[in-house]
């Protein structure tokens, strides 16, 4: 069964084969559920000219924001990029190409890409800048635009727990885009907090089956909180 | 007097019904959760993948893996569920959410909304707003009626890039509750102490005013 063992020993090995100008699809929402160590490895590696597909682009000193100072990202496809000063600067100066994509369309583009569906029609974005240059068609009297699927040379994913075969379990809202990203990579690399033996996960609890996963690594995580909002005890 | 942020939220909350699944946008819409009328249960949808959003956590409950769409740490209410982003937007795009409340820069008489981009200035992105306005049937937009310089935000045609086309039917501003139908604004209610004349003056798009315009009560 060792052919199914996806575990690699180092982050270097996990991101081996990533070269300049590739497309990387990343899971995460804000800083929640981001593959933080895989991103740090891309920074260390210094790959340039990347197209990154991710809902957000991190903050200045954490997450995908780490790839900005050395201009490693050529283009980003994202829905919301407001938390990052360097990002805004590169975008406004034209150094960084940004394709703003509605969040649901982005999730569906990844899902479709992973499922072998080349494109889909959606009402989201009709009559807005997002519709420019896209095919428009009426179904049952309503206008829809054609959106194309996304796949990546690499997908980088954060899950909570996995077995060695790459069956994945996510935790709370750190799930977000990760399951879709996992399906959309030619090489899907997953980092997790816990790795268990095959058979230890209940097949019913697996969110992403190991067939989508090529490489798996156990890491330690900072899990930075973007907006720490609390209330006093007993409120 | 123009409504306060809390009063806007309070008035929106009166539109909630028992058993509603509700998506609240960032800003004033978020405050609606504080004014859910007694005897009514609603479940809050957060588009990052949570149905049944609870209150902010205590320091002990704080969990980096549990946030809302505003990236704030939250908790889960009883009966909550967690799902991925595609599932979340299937709920939204499939029209399964009963009420959506979100902010805007401008709306116009044809129900167009501009809320995400001021060219040359602030570029943050639409997040889930385009999906929400395209997917929901029941949307309430909350916004100030006019800018600080007295320029109306209720227009004949939106001047900014649109978030959605012909999708807004109700707008609650700090001055008035307005319905949009047949290419016109219709004045439904006015804020306490705000005159119909003042609302007319600050509404650039065509406004239909009935003979009697009830004053909101708080």
Summarize the structure.
With 235 residues, chain A is an alpha/beta fold. Chain A has helices at 11-14, 36-45, 85-92, 103-115, 178-183, and strands at 23-26, 50-53, 73-78, 97-100, 119-122, 136-139, 142-148, 152-158, 161-163, 168-169, 185-192, 194-196, 215-218. Chain A has 5 helices and 13 strands.
Low-confidence stretches of chain A: none
Distance between the termini of chain B: 12 Å
> Biggest sheet of chain A: strands side by side, in what order?
4-3-2-1-8-11-13
Number of helices of chain B: 5
Helix content of chain B: 10-25%
| Approximate strand percentage of chain A | 25-35%
Mean pLDDT of chain A: 96
Describe the structure.
The complex is a heterodimer of chains A (235) and B (218). With 235 residues, chain A is of the alpha/beta class. Chain A is built from 5 helices and 13 strands. The longest helix of chain A has 13 residues, at 103-115. Chain B has 218 residues and is an alpha/beta fold. Helices cover 16% and strands 26% of the residues of chain B. Chain B has a 10-stranded mixed β-sheet, sandwiched between helices. The two termini of chain B are 12 Å apart. The relative contact order of chain B is 0.16. The mean pLDDT of chain B is 96.
Topology (SSEs and partners):
The complex is a heterodimer of chains A (235) and B (218).
Chain A: H1 11-14, E1 23-26, H2 36-45, E2 50-53, E3 73-78, H3 85-92, E4 97-100, H4 103-115, E5 119-122, E6 136-139, E7 142-148, E8 152-158, E9 161-163, E10 168-169, H5 178-183, E11 185-192, E12 194-196, E13 215-218
Parallel strand pairs in A: 1-2, 1-8, 2-3, 3-4, 8-11, 9-12, 11-13
Antiparallel strand pairs in A: 5-7, 6-7, 9-10
Chain B: H1 5-13, E1 20-24, H2 28-31, E2 42-46, E3 50-53, E4 76-82, H3 85-93, E5 99-103, E6 106-108, E7 113-114, H4 129-135, E8 139-143, E9 154-155, E10 170-173, E11 176-181, E12 184-190, H5 196-201, E13 207-208
Parallel strand pairs in B: 1-2, 1-5, 5-8, 6-9, 8-10, 12-13
Antiparallel strand pairs in B: 2-3, 3-4, 6-7, 10-11, 11-12
């Amino acid at each position: 069964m060792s052919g199914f063992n996806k575990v690699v020993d180092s982050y270097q090995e996990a991101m081996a084969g990533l070269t300049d100008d590739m497309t990387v699809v990343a899971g995460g929402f804000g800083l929640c559920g981001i593959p933080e160590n895989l991103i740090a490895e891309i920074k260390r590696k210094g790959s340039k000219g990347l197209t990154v597909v991710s809902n957000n682009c991190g903050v200045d000193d954490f997450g995908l924001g780490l790839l900005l100072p050395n201009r490693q990202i050529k283009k980003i496809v994202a829905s919301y990029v407001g938390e990052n000063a360097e990002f805004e600067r590169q975008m406004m100066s034209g150094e960084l190409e940004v394709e703003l994509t509605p969040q649901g369309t982005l999730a569906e583009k990844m899902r479709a890409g992973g499922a072998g569906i080349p494109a889909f029609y959606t009402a989201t974005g009709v009559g807005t800048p997002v519709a420019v240059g896209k095919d428009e068609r009426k179904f049952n009297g309503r206008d829809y635009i054609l959106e194309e699927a996304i796949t990546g040379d690499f997908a980088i994913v954060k899950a909570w727990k996995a077995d060695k075969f790459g069956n994945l379990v996510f935790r709370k809202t750190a799930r977000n885009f990760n399951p879709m990203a996992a399906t959309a990579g030619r090489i899907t690399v997953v980092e997790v907090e816990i790795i268990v033996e095959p058979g230890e996960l209940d097949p019913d609890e697996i969110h992403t089956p190991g067939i989508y996963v090529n490489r798996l690594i156990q890491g330690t995580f900072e899990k930075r909180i973007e907006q720490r909002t609390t209330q006093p005890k007993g409120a | 007097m123009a409504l306060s942020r809390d009063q806007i939220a309070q008035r929106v909350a009166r539109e909630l019904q028992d058993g509603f699944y509700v998506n609240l946008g960032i800003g004033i819409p978020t405050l609606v959760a504080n004014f859910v009328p007694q005897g009514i249960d609603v479940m809050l949808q957060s588009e990052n993948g949570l149905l049944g959003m609870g209150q902010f956590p205590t320091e002990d409950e704080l969990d980096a893996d549990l946030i809302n769409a505003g990236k704030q740490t939250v908790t889960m209410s009883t009966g909550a569920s967690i799902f991925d982003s595609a599932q979340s937007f299937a709920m939204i795009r499939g029209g399964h959410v009963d009420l959506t409340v979100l902010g805007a820069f401008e709306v116009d008489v044809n129900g167009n909304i501009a809320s995400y981009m001021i060219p040359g200035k602030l570029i943050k992105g639409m997040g889930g707003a385009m999906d929400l306005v395209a997917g929901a049937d029941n949307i309430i937009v909350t916004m100030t009626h006019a800018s600080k310089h007295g320029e109306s935000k209720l227009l004949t045609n939106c001047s900014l890039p649109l978030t959605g086309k012909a999708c807004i039917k109700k707008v609650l501003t700090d001055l008035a509750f307005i319905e949009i139908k047949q290419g016109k604004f219709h004045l439904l209610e006015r804020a306490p102490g705000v005159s119909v004349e003042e609302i007319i003056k600050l509404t650039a798009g065509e406004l239909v005013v009935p003979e009697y315009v009830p004053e909101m009560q708080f």
